[in-house]
Amino acid sequence: MTNSTKMGDSEHVSPAPAPREPGAEHDPVFTRRVPTGDNMPRDICDRCGFIHYVNPKVVVGSVVGHQGRILLCRRAIEPRRGFWTLPAGFMEQGETAEQGARREAREEANAEIVLTDLLAVYSIPRIAQVQLMYRAELATPSFSAGEESLEVALFSWEEIPWDELAFPSVHWALTQFHSVEGRVGIAPFGNPDGETGNHFPRAPR
Fold first, then answer.
1. Helices (H), the chain
2. What is the pTM of this model?
3. Is 17 helix (H, G, I), strand (E, B) or coil?
């Protein structure tokens, strides 16, 4: 993906860039107020009336299994560089959620995957994200570190480096995946009770 932020990153919101088109004579001047017909404060340009809407981002990813093990990627980028995560990232325009999940596996793990079903839908309000996580299998037993990964490896349940996971939602997805392993036609999970991504759960015992 081309975004500088990834799954679980804090969302930095800045005003729209100054206009660069020919004929633009003034920089925008934004103030925060409620637009006409709206009920939420927005950044509005006092010169031209442009409304800068900021909405939650959609993250897509997958828990990829292969012969009883799970594919994890060690992050080569911030935030949480050096920690282990699932292949996931922001959707791009013009693609479906499923296409985005497959693309992220190619970009981060050079892996071709087959999606099985939707594992979970997570809401992370602190960083304005909705995360769609799929269950998947490797199409072929071939993978390697993409440019956003330091290394990629398969882990058995007992080998998962729980203390080195990058984000709480990685923990959620792994434990929920494990709880329905081998089952067909599951109902998607949501956030664990009372959890919003503000802290890490305890590692399974």
1. 97-109, 168-179
2. 0.84
3. coil
